[in-house]
Amino acid sequence: MAEMKEYICKSCGKAIEVPEELETFSCVYCGCTMTKAEFLPPVKDPAQLQEDLDFAQAHLGDCFRNYPDYFKHFNRKEYEDFFFHYCHGCAPAFQAMDRYILGYPQRREELISRFARQLLEQWERCNEENKRFRWKSRRKRLEFDNKLTLAWFTVPAIQHMDISCGKEFVTEFHRQYMEKYPDNAFYPGTYEEISAGFRKKRFRLF
Questions:
Q1: CB count in 10 Å sphere of residue 32
Q2: Cα 167 to Cα 158: distance, rounded to the nearest angstrom
Q3: DSSP letter, residue 66
Q4: What span, in angstroms and rounded, lies between the C-alpha atoms of 66 and 31?
Q5: Residue 130 to residues 18, 65, 87, 117, 201, Cα–Cα distance (Å)
Q6: Beta partners for residue 7, in sequence order
Q7: What is 69-121 written as a DSSP string?
Q8: Does 38 score more than 90 pLDDT?
Q9: What pLDDT is recorded for position 42?
Q10: Which range has the top average pLDDT, 7-16, 98-107, 110-119?
Q11: Which partner from 39, 124, 155, 159 sits 20 to 30 angstroms from 170, CA to CA?
């Protein structure tokens, strides 16, 4: 009988058992085909998982706090450089979040929803910390400006990162955002869609 080894699917994040002798395998949950080198090892060290959780919770807000007015660099000449600088700076927090979620595959949906709520709360907190938030006449404009950073940098960056929950997280974050801010909508596009938009001079962002 073939020896089985447990891995985590890089696509859906669920635990799967793979015969040791196979070099490629298709996930029984989502159908994603991977080579042995692409399988993610299961994370079971509680101390490491707690460290990842603490890091993610401490730094998710940096994706807004450390990049004020990034929406001003949304132009064909600057966007690529600023986008990848943003990705590089934000990746550690989202990678820690992803590792924590992978450590509890049976709680995947719950944890994605929880982290999405925390990210939205951090976005709101950064708005409130801005001195423009004190004046009601300026508050709507501030929220609109910071929504542009969400649409053009945060959401595309999460989908561009090499994390298992990227698309699911964006879907849930966008759902929670639209539920709370239906009058300040944005389209959750990808970096590739935005880059193509510069070439075609046409964007679908709202």
A1: 14
A2: 8
A3: T
A4: 38
A5: 51, 10, 23, 20, 32
A6: 16
A7: TGGGG-STTTHHHHHHHHHHHHHHHHHHHHHHHHH-GGGHHHHHHHHHHHHHH
A8: no
A9: 62
A10: 110-119
A11: 39
Assigned token pair, 177: 């955002």
Residue 98 tokens read as: 């992803």
**For residue 37, what are the contacts with CB-CB under 8 A and spacing of at least 6?**
none
Burial grade of 157 (CB within 10 A; 0-12, 13-18, 19 or more): buried
Query: Do 101 and 172 meet the contact criterion of CB atoms below 8 Å apart?
Result: no
Tokens encoding 25: 């395998």
Average pLDDT of the residues of the chain: 89
Sequence letter at residue 4 = M
Paired tokens of 10: 């890089």
Rounded to a whole number of angstroms, the distance between the first and last alpha carbons of the chain is 55
Please provide residue 123's backbone torsions phi and psi, each rounded to the nearest 5 degrees. -60, -45
Tokens of 4: 């089985």
Instruction: Tell me the per-residue pLDDT of 139-183, one tens digit each, with 9 for 90 and over.
Output: 989 999 999 999 999 999 999 998 999 999 999 999 999 999 999
CA 29/CA 160 separation, integer angstroms: 23
